[in-house]
Amino acid sequence: MIRWAHVLPSSGHPGVTRTVGSLRGRYWWPTLAKDVKGYVSSCSVCAQSKAPRHLPRGKLQPLPVPQRPWSHLSIDFLTDLPPSQGNTTVLVIVDRFSKSCRLLPLPGIPTALQTAEALFTHVFRHYGVPEDIVSDRGPQFTSRVWRAFMERLGVSVSLTSGYHPESNGQVERVNQEVGRFLRSYCQDRPGEWARYIPWAEMAQNSLRHSSTNVSPFQCVLGYQPVLAPWHPSQTEAPAVEEWVQRSKETWRAVQDSLRQASGRQKRSADRHRS
Predict the structure, then answer these.
(1) What pLDDT, in 10s, does the model give residues 216-250?
(2) In Å, how far are 19, 54, 87, 163 from 178, measured between CA atoms?
(3) DSSP secondary structure string, 185-214?
(4) What SS3 class is residue 54?
(5) How many angstroms separate the Cα of 228 from the Cα of each of 62, 120, 167, 224?
(6) Rounded to the nearest 5°, which phi and psi values hold at 210?
(7) For the CA atoms of 49, 38, 18, 271, what is the dihedral angle to 10 degrees?
(8) Could you tell me if 22 and 9 are in contact, meaning their C-beta atoms sit under 8 angstroms apart?
(9) Cβ atoms of residues 91 and 140 within 8 Å
């Protein structure tokens, strides 16, 4: 069961805390946390693939907490990947409220219009037009075409400071997680990363996030997918009103958790910043 929760592509080699969280939703035994810690600590794939860490500089200024899912987005590109199914780039879109992500393989770095069309096709039509989009100062996001497109949709454009990726830390963190995931499963077959992108997205959206205390799936959809696909569901579909009410309560709880986590992260980070 630990192997299911840690090694399978639907899990994505998460750390100790999130592996324990995945298991505790459906299983329990007295030494669960201890067994998971020993298993993850001895995982050679994790040791080879985890991203390096260093202390950032400058005081942390958290972005405002959104009111609902998919109203405030962060976007960025993973570039210079080995060719895979004709793709070398991944467009990463992160919902700052639920921490949900969408990963879109692309044949190369797109133009501003192609980026806007990809967002509309794969994100806006599913979740609605957002209120704000945070991005770096890449040429796609500083062009007149991008600004005109977003202005017509009523979307405000927020650009990060130059050479300061921490301003868009949410998507930078997802970039690291996706990169670690692809290294874990494609280290011997780098040309096959494109077929693992759906698994990487599923794994990222299935794991409990430390800021919200729920997974992105739970926050947006109101339920958590089963750990293994052959496990039958143990709950029946609720009535519409009950589902709506539960979703609203989940969003309120997530918003409170995000505010507390934001303040906690700022206090913790500022102790180690100059």
Answers:
(1) 998 888 888 776 554 444 445 556 667 667 666 66
(2) 17, 19, 16, 21
(3) HHSS-GGGHHHHHHHHHHHHHHSPPTTTSS
(4) coil
(5) 36, 32, 36, 12
(6) -65, -25
(7) -80
(8) no
(9) no
